Amino acid sequence: MGHRKYEQPRRGSAAYYPRGRAKSMEARIRTWPKNDSDEPKILAHCGFKAGCVQIVTIDDREKTPNAGKQLVSLGTVLVTPPVSILGIRGYSKDHYGLHAEFDVYANEFPKSISKEINLKNKEGAVENAEKILGRVKEIFAIVAVSPRAAGLEQKKPYIFEALVSGGDVKKQFAHVKELLGKEIKIDQIFEIGATIDVAAITKGKGWQGVIQRFGVKKKQHKSRKTVREVASLGPISPSNVMYSVPRAGQMGFHQRTEYDKRIMVMGNTENNQMKINPAGGYKHFGLVKGDFIILKGSVPGTYRRLIKLRSQIRNAPVKITKPNVLEVVI
């Protein structure tokens, strides 16, 4: 069998295939949780990864060996500047999927965002949108965040959609309409102790071999020609390499969603008593200024990368308990 250049698989799936580079620095949220409340609520926010700390807490999980004992765990600091509500988008739904029915934008935007984008309402956009609300199934808020508000150099804002859930479509439309042109902070969407999901683009590793990329076992040191390759690519006939055979290729810089990250600390550097900045600031990021949160555990992506935060979609608890944080070790 002659040498064949490896291609990403066209059909079938195995774990996270195809492991190609992400097309954008911004992760996409494709699925959303359901909100059974009668009060409409925006289900997403975002932040920028600053660094890692250690959190000393009292374990409040019942029926565990460490219940009531002191725990030291990893925490990830995210800078969460306010997001601006730019507009409203309504979607109808049929067996082909979602279809955008209308866009309504705010009359004025914050200066940091109005310089970079040019969105204008058509005449009577609000009135036309209210007339066709009967065929609209989902309402999304068009939100934007400026990296400069987090102390970064990037001028261009990130713009994405966040689902509005709870109540009926008319309540959802009215809720976002009141917020048009305004900024909402992280504590208006999430609370301390809540568990959320994070979506981001992972740290890029470049081109890697099968040992690093898939954890394939090395061959014997007396093997023919190579040691750090797969022993067999498949049968001689048919002369085809299946998609499930590990091959070298891109590693990292993939979109990933991690579930159930608990918010341990939520505060602001100006009025928060807890010291959050190390001397000289975080490596590759600098000083944290303004609103921030600390999530328990790790978060995908490198420092300064956009992290999207979504309401928990799995294993949502009935009651949210506030964590007992004793100390944050920088």
Observed structural traits:
about 325 residues; mainly beta; six-stranded antiparallel β-barrel
Structure description:
By secondary structure, the chain is mainly β. It is built from four helices and 15 strands. It has helices at 111-114, 125-131, 169-179, 210-214; strands spanning 41-42, 44-58, 70-79, 83-94, 97-105, 138-145, 158-165, 183-184, 195-201, 206-208, 249-251, 255-268, 291-296, 306-311, 324-329. The strands form three sheets. Strands 1, 4, 5, 6, 7 and 8 form a six-stranded antiparallel beta sheet that branches. It has a six-stranded antiparallel barrel with strand order 2-3-13-12-9-14. Strand 4 (83-94) and strand 5 form a beta hairpin. It starts with 40 loop residues before the first strand and ends with a strand. Mean pLDDT is 91; it is low at 1-14.
Explain briefly what this protein structure is:
With about 325 residues, this protein is mainly beta. The chain starts with about 40 loop residues before the first strand and ends with a strand.
Topology of this protein?
Layout: E1 41-42, E2 44-58, E3 70-79, E4 83-94, E5 97-105, H1 111-114, H2 125-131, E6 138-145, E7 158-165, H3 169-179, E8 183-184, E9 195-201, E10 206-208, H4 210-214, E11 249-251, E12 255-268, E13 291-296, E14 306-311, E15 324-329
Antiparallel strand pairs: 1-7, 2-3, 2-14, 2-15, 3-13, 4-5, 4-6, 4-8, 6-7, 9-12, 9-14, 10-11, 12-13
